[in-house]
């Protein structure tokens, strides 16, 4: 018995840790709240999403998207919107969508509920005041969702959107590898994760910029259109009348 107890205890700690990991980190988990990780598959379209900006590289990404007439969704970090307000405005002016990606890119797992709430609320205000558009979608840093996160996003009517395809552009890999990572997995309804900024402020997104034309061409060669994220989410969850610019 003496021997078994520690083993049992270790086992249940491991199980609790696994459950916590699944509930908070596994990008597709629905345990704590509704989470979209793939869009509708009946439109033969995918959505491109960019996290952690705006940054100077965002401008290059906007140039590529514009040249290819493709639209995307940018999950912005409030602190970076304060640093690059003009770039945030350009994202919206060029017809792209915006989402809330926290104020300073913490993991919500290690925060008090009030801090998580403040991160999300503050970023809503910064994005709305800077761009004139109030986000309707949120994506938590590292994909980590906690009960406090869902409490805050529900209060602000924010839909949580993760991804099913990643370019893994946060790793040190070539543009071709980033494009291959996306094209190998993309299918109708896919939500593709890329980065136009770096939460640690270390890496430029040159490789992502170079990968983007390869990704757009590769998707279109497979007859996959590139659509705004809102077109891939169920219509009742995304009320287009609320997207109206708040300062118009
Ligand atoms: Zn991020």
Structural notes for this entry:
The protein has two domains: 1-31; 34-234, Glycoside hydrolase/deacetylase (TIM Barrel, Alpha-Beta Barrel), CATH 3.20.20.370. Helix content is 43%, strand content 13%. It contains nine helices and nine strands. The chain has helices at residues 4-24, 56-67, 78-83, 85-93, 113-131, 147-155, 175-185, 206-221, 229-232, and strands at residues 35-36, 45-51, 72-76, 97-100, 137-138, 159-161, 165-166, 191-195, 225-226. Strands 1, 2, 3, 4, 5, 6, 7, 8 and 9 form a nine-stranded parallel beta sheet that branches. The longest helix is centred in the first third of the chain and has 21 residues, at 4-24. It binds zinc ion. Zinc ion is lined by residues 51-52, 101, 105, 141, 199.
How would you summarize what this structure contains?
This protein has helices at residues 4-24, 56-67, 78-83, 85-93, 113-131, 147-155, 175-185, 206-221, 229-232; strands at residues 35-36, 45-51, 72-76, 97-100, 137-138, 159-161, 165-166, 191-195, 225-226.
Key terms:
single chain, 248 residues, alpha/beta, TIM Barrel, 2 domains, 9-stranded parallel beta sheet, 9 helices, 9 strands, globular, binds zinc ion
* SSE run: HEEHEHHEHEHEEHEHEH
- The count of DSSP E runs of length 2 or more, i.e. the number of strands, is 9
Radius of gyration: 19 Å
Instruction: Name the bound molecules.
Output: zinc ion
- Beta-strand share of residues: 5-15%
The biggest sheet, with number of strands, parallel, antiparallel or mixed sense and barrel status, is: 9 strands, parallel
CATH class of the largest domain: Alpha Beta
Which consecutive residue ranges, at least 5 long each, have pLDDT under 50?
A: 240-244
Structural class: alpha/beta
What is the CATH architecture term of the largest domain? Alpha-Beta Barrel
Q: So what's the overall shape? A: globular
What is the CATH H-level superfamily of the largest domain? Glycoside hydrolase/deacetylase
The total domain count is 2
The CATH topology label of the largest domain is: TIM Barrel
């Amino acid at each position: 018995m003496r021997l078994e107890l520690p083993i049992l205890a270790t086992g249940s700690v491991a199980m609790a840790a696994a459950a916590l990991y699944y509930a908070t980190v596994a990008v597709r988990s629905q345990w704590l709240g509704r989470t979209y990780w793939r869009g509708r598959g009946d439109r033969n379209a995918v959505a491109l999403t960019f996290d952690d900006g705006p940054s100077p590289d965002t401008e290059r990404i906007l140039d590529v998207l514009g040249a290819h007439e493709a639209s995307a969704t940018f999950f912005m970090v409030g602190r970076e919107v304060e640093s690059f307000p003009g770039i945030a405005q350009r994202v919206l002016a060029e017809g792209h969508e915006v989402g809330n990606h926290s104020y300073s890119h913490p993991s919500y797992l290690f925060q008090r509920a009030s801090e998580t709430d403040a991160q999300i609320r503050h970023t809503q205000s910064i994005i709305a005041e800077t761009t004139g558009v109030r986000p309707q979608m949120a994506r938590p840093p590292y994909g980590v969702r906690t009960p406090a996160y869902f409490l805050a996003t529900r209060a602000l009517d924010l839909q949580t959107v993760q991804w099913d395809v990643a370019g893994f552009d946060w790793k040190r890999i070539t543009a071709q590898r980033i494009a291959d990572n996306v094209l190998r997995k993309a299918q109708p309804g896919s939500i593709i994760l890329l980065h136009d900024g770096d939460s640690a402020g270390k890496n430029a997104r040159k490789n992502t910029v170079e990968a983007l034309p390869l990704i757009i061409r590769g998707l279109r060669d497979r007859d996959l259109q590139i659509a705004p994220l809102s077109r891939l989410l169920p219509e009742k969850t995304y009320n287009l009348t609320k997207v109206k610019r708040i300062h118009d």
